[in-house]
Amino acid sequence: DALKRQPHGSPAYVHKGFSNTRRRCSRWGGYNVRMALLDWLRALTERTGTAEGDTETVRRIVQELDPLEPARARFLAAFAYVLSRVAGADSHFSDEETAKMVDLVARSGLPAAQAVVVVEIAKRQNTMFGGTENFLVTREFRELATEAERRELLDCLFAVSAADDSISGVEESQIRQVASELGFTHNDYVTARAAW
């Protein structure tokens, strides 16, 4: 689990020696990675400044994360929403997909109960406003995240969609769209997809 400091002070996950994306995503649960994740979430507060670009969806989830630093709350809100975007692409959130989303959000250091609330709000917001909010929230995540964090999100999108032992065509199409909105090329997408 090699972490490398970026010039702006935020740690980035270095993908050394992992040929399987599932193993990379599961490594988020490690203590050192969790602590590093908290460090760069704190660094985001310094980098992001005001919250003028927040969408209504991000603001709604951030309210539930009120005790957290604003930048960290915005990051987690956008992260959870983008996960829900893929999980709900087939108009159904399976129990396995929901559990995987909660697990990934909780690995950032949130208590499990708070992670459940964040995921449920993200799912509800996606169901109610998905058509209008999808691009806006994904763009917000892109602005908040480093390239390494965006790659981790892409890996986690596949983890969520595969949580019920299948990746449907509509989920795969949604991941492809999110990958494009995150600034990845088609080759980047194909490389990430190949692990699943």
Describe this structure in words.
The model is unreliable at 1-51 (pLDDT under 50). The longest helix has 33 residues, at 112-144. This protein has a two-stranded antiparallel ribbon. The two termini are 21 Å apart. Helices cover 68% and strands 3% of the residues. With 196 residues, it is mostly helical. Helix 3 packs across helix 4 (70-87) and helix 4 packs antiparallel against helix 5 (95-106). It has helices at 21-26, 31-48, 56-64, 70-87, 95-106, 112-144, 147-161, 169-181, 186-194; strands at residues 3-5, 11-13. The chain has 9 helices and 2 strands; from the N terminus they run E-E-H-H-H-H-H-H-H-H-H.
Provide a compact summary of the structure.
With 196 residues, this protein is mainly alpha-helical.
Task: Note the topology.
Elements lengths: L2 E3 L5 E3 L7 H6 L4 H18 L7 H9 L5 H18 L7 H12 L5 H33 L2 H15 L7 H13 L4 H9 L2
Antiparallel strand pairs: 1-2
Helix pairs in contact: 2-4, 3-4, 3-6, 4-5, 4-6, 4-7, 4-8, 5-6, 5-7, 7-8
Relative helix content: 55-70%
User: Structural class of the helices, strands and pairings?
Assistant: mainly alpha
Q: Mean pLDDT score, rounded?
A: 76
Distance between the termini: 21 Å
Number of helices: 9
- SSE run: EEHHHHHHHHH
Number of separate strands: 2
Q: Assign an overall shape.
A: globular
Radius of gyration: 15 Å
Major sheet size, sense and barrel closure:
2 strands, antiparallel
Unreliable stretches covering 5 or more consecutive residues:
1-51
What proportion of the residues form beta strands (DSSP E)?
under 5%
Q: In order across it, which strands form the biggest sheet? A: 1-2
